């Protein structure tokens, strides 16, 4: 009987499959043997622990163990009682919380259902006269509210602008007074009693110049924020007023307060620009004065500083007068 090549291949495949099965069986046996070894090791360790405990128990008498057990039993009972009370309190708390959450869910669901808009019904009643009248009334109410909000915002911006103008005026007045006092101080230093010059600490002059610069920077920042707020409020009021005028019916009349608010909203922007231009002039003049005052005075430069201070005072007075006039107007 001749053996074909295909039969040889099939036998080889069968033998390979058997080898794979035996390898898998060997791996399983190895795993089982490892687990058995671990169990034996744990049993040995347990036996060692038992031997240690027996050795310790032989050293103590049974009476001592009984007394220790009797001492621990009341504590265990108290702990068990506390555990039971805590479990009961926890269950009550859970039941109360579940009840509260169920009521809250019912309440929120009812609120959602009540506040839900039925668009089909609203569309069906859209062409009815009563709905049209109610919609017009709602539009009127919304326009009145928007106009009131715009008036409040305009009034707030106006008050803020007036406050900032007052602060700027006070600051400019203080600056001019300070410059006048500095000029008097220079004159007293030049032409003091007995021809002796008064000594002035350079640190004090530097600190005064730093304080003046800080006040000027704070005033400039407040002016910038004021202009930003006024511009944003005017733009928001204009943006909110446009859709209301479009949606109002023909028979609704726009009140005169809206026109007045739109006319007044353009005023703070021009005031802010004029005041900012005058502020830049005063800042330049003050920096020139501070630099001239911070330098050490010598007999050769006293006349130059006197003329510089006089020129800067004239410049600052000319720069501060328009700011005050614009704020008062």
Automatic annotation (TrEMBL):
InterPro entries for this protein: SIKE (IPR008555)
Transmembrane segments: none
Alphabetical UniProt keywords: Coiled coil
Pfam family of the protein (one): SIKE
Region Disordered, annotated ranges: 225-307
Keyword Transferase among UniProt keywords: no
Compositionally biased spans, kind Polar residues: 258-268
The UniProt record lists the keyword Coiled coil: yes
Low complexity compositional bias, start-end: 225-238, 269-282, 297-307
Source species, domain of life: Eukaryota
UniProt xrefs under PANTHER family: FGFR1 ONCOGENE PARTNER 2 HOMOLOG (PTHR12186:SF2), SIKE FAMILY MEMBER (PTHR12186)
Family: Belongs to the SIKE family.
Name this polypeptide is given: Uncharacterized protein
Species annotation: Anopheles marajoara
